[in-house]
Design goal:
single chain; alpha+beta; Fructose-1,6-Bisphosphatase, Chain A, domain 1; D-Maltodextrin-Binding Protein, domain 2; eight-stranded mixed β-sheet
């Protein structure tokens, strides 16, 4: 298709993402902090539950009904090709380890990609009833509970030494041969915490953290984040500074500290694939 992203009508898809993202996230609460489900281990040893699967099924059914020509890629049930040029990218529970531990920092993520770039993003944290959403050119918006959404902006702190660094899991740095990168970032930051997964990127988008970093990342972890951070005035890139959701790693910043962080991360390229 020849339509540029600047002429896309994203409103109907954003409205659907907002509605079903909240519905799917709230669906997971019937299992959260309860003992009414089992935890399975996937081939990569990551956990999955019935809550992940049911939430993704809910999302897929709603998308297919509203936009049957759109493609869908989800963490739990793979990909269905489309013909419209749009592809929905779903992570029904980002932070399943938090979910099964009873920690309310997991979230439901929806991204919509067009022309290999993510143009819509939603992150909803059901345990906190809080979320952010964005579409290209329309800003980033943050809400809690029943309050009306308010414009979300990244912080104005210009050095990592004055700001907060968040990540999901420290040991993943060593898994990609970048333990030293974490050590240097931790040393440079004023505050370091593992308030990670999608909640960490929400913190950056709303000005409460300056950097969220993932050494290893799937496209369904990244797709929602790019438009959210860019529309909030920040950046979402790989460790080399390229704005992409397809690199297998992620770096979200307020923009002002990006070069400071890249001076560290650029020295640690990903391991070559076998």
């Amino acid at each position: 298709m020849n339509t540029s992203t600047s002429t896309l009508n994203l409103g109907p898809r954003l409205a659907l993402a907002r509605r079903i993202g909240v519905a799917a996230g709230r669906h997971t609460l019937q299992y959260f902090q309860r003992d009414n489900y089992e935890v399975e281990r996937k081939d990569d040893a990551s956990p999955v539950t019935i809550a992940d699967k049911e939430a993704e099924q809910l999302l897929r059914q709603e998308i297919a009904a509203a936009f049957p020509e759109d493609g869908i890629l989800g963490e739990e049930f793979g990909e269905v090709a489309g013909s419209s040029g749009y592809r929905w990218i779903l992570d029904p529970i980002d932070g399943t380890k938090s979910f099964i531990s009873g920690v309310p920092l997991y979230g439901t993520m929806i991204g919509v990609e067009y022309a290999h770039r993510s143009v819509i993003g939603l992150v909803y944290i059901p345990g906190l009833d809080e979320g952010v959403y964005a579409s290209q050119g329309a800003g980033c918006w943050h809400w809690r509970g029943e309050a009306p959404p308010a414009a979300a902006r990244v912080s104005t702190r210009s050095t990592l030494g004055a700001g907060a660094l968040v990540t999901s899991e420290v040991k993943t740095f060593a898994q990609r041969g970048a333990a030293q990168a974490y050590a240097e970032l931790d040393q440079a930051a004023w505050i370091t915490r593992t308030w990670g997964d999608c909640y960490g990127y929400l913190l950056v988008a709303t000005g409460r953290a300056e950097v969220m970093i993932d050494p290893i990342m799937s496209v369904w972890d990244a797709a929602a984040i790019q438009p959210i951070l860019e529309e909030a005035g920040g950046t979402f890139t790989n460790w080399s500074g390229e704005a992409t959701i397809h690199s297998g790693e992620g770096l979200g910043t307020n923009g002002l500290v990006l070069e400071e962080v890249l001076a560290i991360t650029r020295r640690f390229p990903p391991k070559p694939k076998p």
